[in-house]
From TrEMBL:
InterPro entries the UniProt entry points to: LHD_YVC1, TRP_calcium_channel, YVC1_C
Residue ranges occupied by any Calcium channel YVC1-like C-terminal transmembrane domain in the UniProt entry: 257-518
Acidic residues composition bias: residue spans: 538-555
Protein name: Calcium activated cation channel
Assigned keywords, A-Z: Membrane, Transmembrane, Transmembrane helix
Length: 607
């Protein structure tokens, strides 16, 4: 158990955390606090410590007293403490990567900072937890510039802090962002703050009928799923156009092609706008795997469209060739389009974890192809030398073709009178398998934390780029018409224009959202909540669950369940909040105090 001084320190810190107000310190002050926390961590971990010992909830290193010391070290900047700890973690990781000799020490310090940030959030009172997680701060960078404004939850996502993001407190904030209980508040500098929704606490249908609810990640996700499934259907019809046309000389756009290319243009505008806003207002680290996939889809669709237009504009054989190339390019989009169906089901842990594995494997493929490029140069030169040994050399394209076939495990080395199958299999294939295996093990080993970190990235990523009036694709083409009014009318007038335009276009989705939030949301509707939840869920602290009594008939027969009170039953349980070493040390400390008291009594008696 925690000693009296530690318990008192914990109580004082808890009280100070409750009394502190929302603050916005300048970047220099934040940098000073980060340096102080780094100095504390260096004093805490002067030598290398195993990460498992730091992550253990009953760790002898990161104790309640240590957490209290870090809370006290923040002074009046308690709300900024998680952000600064995660910032210190990021700097320790940078030092670990640039100083291999001290990699183990700095890795342990980075993990300690992340664990401490999680413990601090755990001790925060409920009314301050959201502010500590979502308040955005700046710090002074090494080159003297101010950093971008980030919150603790955002810097944890950018740094892939699975320990921090897998905590129940972090997931509570992520779920509030996902469900719209925390929303964006835009300032004059194109920045955003996460604040409680003004719709919370109101139960009427009309109070929830607002165009701002379209920006809630949960509703964005549902809307984009429906639009993407519709796009898949349209794409499937468009690629059949060469088969469905009886007249092969018919060259105009098919109706399915027109709709497909219009939607493709809308997706391209949306993806480019999102990436530009992330680069300008957030960081390039916020660009994820699916952003790259989307850009590839947009590029292929636009290429197919340009070839199609060029084919329609030309005549003669060029018309047919360009039309053929356009549909060939369009066919390349199919794997990527169907790949983006995966996020539809990433709410399920298994699919989400497999999605993370695939993304990690594709990242490892980059390492593989870097090695392949070096080996490929050597193989290409060797094959060319074998081909030229007889004094006759074939075209270099044929040598390159043989090399590509070898990579695909279908080599034909007969012309070179030598077989390199073993070399290509061992060097090329097994390297890729080992990289994929390591990526899979890294993810599956801590699958729950990896998935929670991915879900946090998904939820926050939908609202990080500042967009006060959200027009989901393909309706963002309408925003191209409305957007210029921002520069010629008053901001309030511009907001009114968007309100009426969005209210007209999205009335049906907005009405469904308002109906759900007002009547069917499990957090507000008791019947729906009881239907979706387990009958015993949430009764752990209920006195009737701890000391139940039989029904009237059994009670009349003298039957009792709680003959031994609940408190008496748990009095013999071990204290699992502390390690066995800490319990032993506490008992030794108590024994020493008793011995000291006994010595004092003996001395007084001898006098």
């Amino acid at each position: 158990m925690m000693d009296a001084s530690g318990l008192l320190a914990h109580s004082d810190d808890h009280a100070s955390m409750m009394s502190v107000q929302s603050i916005h310190p300048n970047p220099d002050t934040m940098s000073k606090l980060v340096r102080r926390l780094k100095a504390l961590t260096l004093a805490l971990l002067p030598v290398e410590v195993s990460p498992d010992r730091l992550e253990d909830p009953t760790s002898r290193v990161i104790t309640h007293q240590v957490v209290s010391s870090y809370i006290a070290a923040a002074g009046d900047l308690i709300e900024a403490l998680p952000y600064c700890l995660l910032r210190a973690r990021k700097e320790f990781m940078w030092e670990a990567g640039h100083n291999p000799a001290d990699y183990g020490e700095n890795l342990g310090r980075a993990i300690a900072c992340e664990v401490l940030a999680r413990r601090v959030i755990h001790l925060a009172p409920p009314d301050k937890m959201h502010a500590m997680m979502s308040s955005r701060f700046r710090h002074r960078e090494v080159d003297g510039d101010e950093s971008e404004r980030l919150s603790a939850i955002e810097i944890a996502i950018d740094s892939h802090c699975t320990i921090f993001l897998s905590s129940s407190e972090a997931q509570d904030v992520v779920n509030d962002l996902w469900c719209g209980r925390l929303v964006q508040k835009h300032d004059t500098e194109h920045g955003i703050e996460f604040v409680p929704s003004k719709h919370e606490g109101y139960d009427g249908f009309w109070s929830h009928l607002s165009t701002s609810r379209l920006s809630v990640p949960r509703y964005q996700n549902i809307f984009r799923i429906i639009v993407w499934l519709l796009f898949l259907f349209i794409y499937s019809q468009a690629v059949r156009e060469p088969l469905d046309k009886i007249d092969p000389n018919y060259t105009d756009f098919d109706k399915w092609e027109v709709v497909m290319y219009v939607m493709g243009l809308a997706f391209a505008f949306e993806d480019i706008q999102k990436i530009l806003k992330l680069l300008i207002f957030v960081s390039w680290r916020a660009i994820g795997f699916w952003n790259i996939v989307s850009l590839c889809i947009d590029a292929l669709l636009m290429t197919a469209f340009c070839l199609r237009v060029a084919g329609i504009s030309s005549s003669g054989p060029g018309n047919y060739n360009l039309r053929l190339k356009s549909f060939q390019c369009l066919s390349f989009v199919a794997p990527l389009i169907w790949m983006k169906v995966i996020p539809i089901f990433d709410g399920y842990k298994f699919v989400g974890t497999m999605q993370i594995c695939i993304a990690r494997m594709l990242q490892e493929s980059g390492i593989f192809f870097c090695l392949l490029a070096l080996l490929g140069v050597g193989f290409l030169q060797g094959l060319y030398a074998l081909d030229a040994a007889d004094g006759q050399g074939d075209r270099p394209a044929e040598v390159v073709h043989v090399l590509i076939q070898a990579l695909l495990q279908a080599p034909n080395y007969d012309r070179f009178e030598i077989r390199w199958n073993v070399a290509t299999v061992v060097i090329l294939l097994n390297i890729l398998i080992s990289l994929f295996s390591s990526a899979y093990d890294d993810v599956v080993e801590d699958a729950a934390a990896e998935y929670l970190a991915y879900f946090a990235d998904k939820a926050v990523g939908m609202i990080r780029a500042p967009d006060q009036f959200l027009y989901p694709a393909p309706f963002n083409l309408i925003e191209i018409v409305v957007g210029p009014f921002e520069y010629v009318v008053h901001p309030r007038t511009y907001a009114t224009i968007n309100k009426y335009v969005m209210g007209t276009i999205f009335f049906i989705p907005l009405a469904v959202i308002a109906l759900y939030e007002a009547e069917l949301d499990p957090s507000k509707n008791k019947w729906v909540k009881n239907w979706l939840s387990h009958s015993d869920q949430g009764f752990e602290d209920d006195p009737e669950a701890q000391d139940p009594e039989p029904d009237d008939e059994d009670a009349a027969n003298g039957l009792r369940i709680s003959r031994v009170p609940f408190k008496e039953l748990i009095s013999v349980f071990p204290d699992t909040t502390q390690s066995s070493e800490a319990v032993i040390l506490g008992e030794v400390r108590d024994l020493k105090n008793q011995i000291e008291e006994l010595k004092k009594l003996l001395l007084e008696k001898n006098r």
